[in-house]
User: Fold this.
Amino acid sequence: MPFALVDTLFLAAMVVELRMENRCAAGCMDLLKWGLMNASSNTPAAPIPGKAGAIHVDGHAYPGSVAIVGGGIVGLALAYRALDEWPGARIAVFEKETEVGQHQSGHNSNVLHCGLYYKPGSLKAQLAVEGIRAMVLFCQQHGVPYDRCGKLVVAVGENEVPRLRELEGRGKTNGLQGLRWLGPEAMREVEPYVRGVAALHVPEEGITDFPSVCRAMAASIRSRGGEVHTSAEVSSLTWRDGQWRLRASDREHSANFLFNCAGLHCDRVAALAGERRQTRIVPFRGEYYELNAEGAQLVKNLIYPVPDPRFPFLGVHFTRMIHGGVEAGPNAVLATAREGYSRRDVSLRDFADVISFSGFWRFLAKYPRMSAYEIYRSLSPAAFLHSLQRLVPALRREHLRPGGAGVRAQALTRTGALVQDFDYIQRPNALHLINAPSPGATASLAIARHLLRVVSGR
Assistant:
């Protein structure tokens, strides 16, 4: 399907009368039932009778064998932590690609987020603050490059100042250290080419190389007796005789407990295990530009806008990369494939899965202007440049060249709400991580520790 046709379909959906939205959604669901091929009618898996195969230590019990579906950074962090916290357990990771960390973990800004944006008391707030410290320690111990270079969040106009003040309050509540409120002159001492009426300097933020983190985690897991299976796509999950039976690349494996960390495919893996898909993964593609050598001189470290609090996206920003160069982006445009890193990547199965979901139509009905603008900005380099020039006016079109892209696994509810916090489904014999986008990479080791303790009752 040509990408222009796909964009036209989205734009057409946005101009239908809002009162027709439910009827449209119902019609699409009838027309595209085949798109729900992964929705399971099975009953939820039965609990482990008497926690068969459990290991008991200090009054706590944990599974004797664990299967982790998904070899991205969170799945690997779970295995890495489990080898320490669950001694004696057999830990195995199953990744469908030939290498670990090939999707969200390898297609992102590589920014270390310290917890500025997240609602106090939320899992994101708790685990980002703990997670960045754990991730920095991991990088130090395993020789992964990182730099706590700091970030500037810029209010371009007076109307953004109250939201920036709110971010400052959230950061202080969440335990961030060294936050500084800056006026126009002071902010230009940090970033000489930036423009705005106020800025918040966040010294604890930084950059790293998350693909290298994934490789280091996999090497450590294997060296300590854990298993990391690549080219091992899980095609079936069956609970039988107190164990999960997994079929991965035509081989059968077994485990007492299942962790689903499949990211872009987590809702489908949950369905394989018997869960009903109450939320759906909707893929949002984030596109980047790279700055040429002259343009890169305009940015020292990290420059971010004040984000729209209605959405879990941070807005297009500037990121100095750990191995050199500067990226600008990402936007957040609906992708037509869960692994669709280009507008030309279209999966009919994935596309049908989105438009046959009533929550998608409710989302479009709530935010038609934002959705249309993101498509327009994706297609228009001039519009993308304009967004960047709000922060750095000296940037010119010739400074930009097309960069890479990532796809964010964003959970969407049936009401059309984007799931803002980390979210999971807990069962006696399984835990399905349903929503773990940014700051999931930074917080991965803290997420892992939290989930292990949830399961073991600590």
In short: Residues 1-31+280-418 form a domain with the D-Amino Acid Oxidase; Chain A, domain 2 fold (CATH 3.30.9). The mean pLDDT is 89.
